[in-house]
């Protein structure tokens, strides 16, 4: 029987393992930590009974992922839940841009001209998203499944974010788009600065920004249950330091970053691949603050009180300036902050009137300072009286994020800098971005297309590449 070892149990590693097991490959997944999940782990971090997500929290690409949707993970315990509003972006005026799953409802709360433009930009993208998903959640070099829809999306995605934002005159629409674009964790002013914002807003209208009931850990728990039903195994507490540890399986898939792959593969890695992996760039970091808050956050804007995700950064121009600073290694006075109120969709994460609040700021790569107060300042800015409600906090610096998960190099939780080059050619320029150059050995992490997100598509495509290798033998 053909055998495979997958190193790492994040969504991509488990997706790769499941795809191989579906084809009759005997698969072992090896996880260095005692708990599976990578960036999808969850647990009590502040007070007993409050469930916090370690890293990934909202899953627009997860619920839209063609591969995850094909697996029937609901049978294995996964349930997607949604808050009243998908996303809100408050402004100092007290107004807010609000993303509802309904495009028309979102547009109706904008000034009339901006609402018409919002419908024009996102209406067709959202309605076409399921046709686009295979193309935008895959490698650059492929035969498009929906060439016309992809061409339309690509023509908009290639633009710098400020160019796209010029279509709206009001601050609400501009800020709402800008906050979504800021998920790129980098400069928004260059080519493809619009890509991630367009995709996240479109998928929000198509599928929402849901959470997993009980915590993000439920995603990988369900995937592991399916893998075991297919005959695969998952072993925790097993750190892989070198390829020689693996007893010569037919296939090896690494759910690791390129730098870790160099360490594991050593001299077997072709020199050209080794050089490219060593040059792979990581981007700005996250600084995470988990909070136990009594009574929830007293947002000035009422829609923020119903939104699962709240982006804090002020105007579009403020967001662009803060992201430019962090991408250049400078800590902004007012960083972009993402706040998660998962308990609004999933009350099981709370304990009575104590609620878990998830927040992180974008900070420079490897940032050594303490960003706790800037995070709290940004929340207080839009929710006066918030600080007295805090009952406990749990802080993780960029260095702590890296030590907790070695794939988060320097605190970069996206798996690599989202520069134009790396958006198109990650992790190296090659026809098969998953191949390492060692026969039967593949990279399947967020450092490969399509990048970050709990979608499993990098693992799926890496497994497909591995299966083609088996067919050629």
Walk me through the structure.
It comes from Kitasatospora aureofaciens (Streptomyces aureofaciens). InterPro entries: FAD/NAD-bd_sf (IPR036188). The protein has 473 residues and is α/β, with parallel strands linked by helices. The chain has a domain at 3-43 and 54-79 and 214-280 and 415-472: FAD/NAD(P)-binding domain (3-Layer(bba) Sandwich). Helix content is 37%, strand content 17%. It is built from 18 helices and 16 strands. It has a seven-stranded mixed sheet, with helices on both faces. The longest helix is centred in the first third of the chain and has 16 residues, at 112-127. The chain starts with a strand and ends with a helix.
Q: Gyration radius, to the nearest Å?
A: 21 Å
Structural class: alpha/beta
CATH homologous superfamily designation of the domain at 3-43 and 54-79 and 214-280 and 415-472: FAD/NAD(P)-binding domain
Poorly predicted tracts of residues: none
Give the CATH level 1 class of the domain at 3-43 and 54-79 and 214-280 and 415-472.
Alpha Beta
Q: Could you give the count of β-strands? A: 16
Q: Give the terminus-to-terminus CA distance.
A: 14 Å
CATH fold annotation of the domain at 3-43 and 54-79 and 214-280 and 415-472: FAD/NAD(P)-binding domain
| Helix amount | 25-40%
Strand content: 15-25%
The count of helical stretches stands at 18
How do the strands line up in the largest sheet? 7-6-12-13-14-11-15
Architecture per CATH nomenclature, i.e. the level-2 architecture of the domain at 3-43 and 54-79 and 214-280 and 415-472: 3-Layer(bba) Sandwich
Mean pLDDT: 95
Organism: Kitasatospora aureofaciens
InterPro entries: FAD/NAD-bd_sf
Protein name: Dehydrogenase
């Amino acid at each position: 029987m053909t055998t495979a070892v997958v190193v790492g149990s994040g969504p991509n590693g488990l997706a790769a393992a499941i795809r191989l097991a579906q084809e009759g490959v005997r698969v072992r997944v090896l996880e260095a930590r005692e708990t599976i999940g990578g960036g999808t782990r969850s647990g009590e971090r502040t007070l007993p009974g409050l469930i916090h997500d370690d890293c990934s929290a909202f899953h627009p690409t997860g619920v839209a992922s063609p591969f995850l949707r094909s697996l029937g993970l609901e049978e294995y315990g996964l349930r997607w839940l949604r808050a009243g509003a998908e996303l809100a972006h408050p402004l100092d005026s007290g107004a807010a841009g609000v993303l509802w799953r309904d495009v028309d409802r979102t547009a109706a709360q904008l000034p009339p001209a901006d609402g018409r433009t919002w419908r024009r930009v996102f209406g067709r993208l959202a309605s076409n998203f399921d046709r686009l998903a295979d193309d935008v959640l895959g490698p650059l070099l492929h035969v498009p499944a929906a060439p016309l829809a992809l061409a339309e999306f690509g023509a908009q995605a290639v633009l710098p974010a400020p160019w796209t934002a010029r279509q709206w005159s009001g601050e609400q629409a501009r800020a709402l788009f800008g906050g979504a674009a800021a998920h790129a964790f980098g400069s928004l002013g260059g080519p493809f600065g619009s890509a991630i914002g367009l995709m996240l807003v479109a998928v929000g209208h198509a599928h929402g920004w849901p959470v997993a009931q009980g915590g993000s850990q439920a995603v990988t728990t369900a995937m592991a249950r399916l893998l075991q039903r297919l005959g695969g195994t998952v072993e925790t507490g097993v750190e892989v330091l070198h390829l020689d540890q693996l007893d010569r399986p037919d296939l090896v898939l690494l759910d690791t970053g390129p730098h870790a792959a160099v360490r594991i593969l050593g001299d077997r890695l072709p020199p050209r691949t080794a050089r490219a992996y060593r040059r792979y760039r990581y981007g700005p970091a996250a600084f995470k603050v988990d909070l136990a808050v009594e009574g929830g956050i007293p947002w000035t804007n009422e829609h923020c009180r119903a939104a699962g995700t709240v982006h804090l950064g002020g105007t579009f121009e403020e967001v662009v300036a803060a992201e430019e600073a962090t991408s250049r290694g400078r800590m902004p006075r007012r960083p972009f902050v993402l706040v998660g109120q998962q308990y609004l969709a999933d009350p099981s994460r709370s304990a009575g009137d104590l609620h878990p609040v998830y927040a992180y700021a974008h900070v420079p790569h490897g940032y050594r300072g303490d960003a706790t107060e800037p995070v709290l300042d940004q929340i207080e800015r839009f929710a006066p009286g918030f600080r007295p409600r805090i009952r406990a906090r749990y802080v993780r610096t960029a260095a702590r994020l890296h030590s907790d998960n070695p794939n988060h190099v320097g605190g970069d939780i996206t798996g690599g800098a989202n520069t134009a080059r790396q958006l198109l050619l990650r992790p190296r320029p090659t026809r098969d971005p998953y191949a390492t150059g060692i026969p039967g050995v593949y990279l399947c992490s967020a450092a490969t297309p399509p990048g970050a997100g709990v979608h499993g598509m990098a693992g799926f495509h890496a497994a497909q590449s591995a299966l083609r290798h088996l067919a050629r033998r």
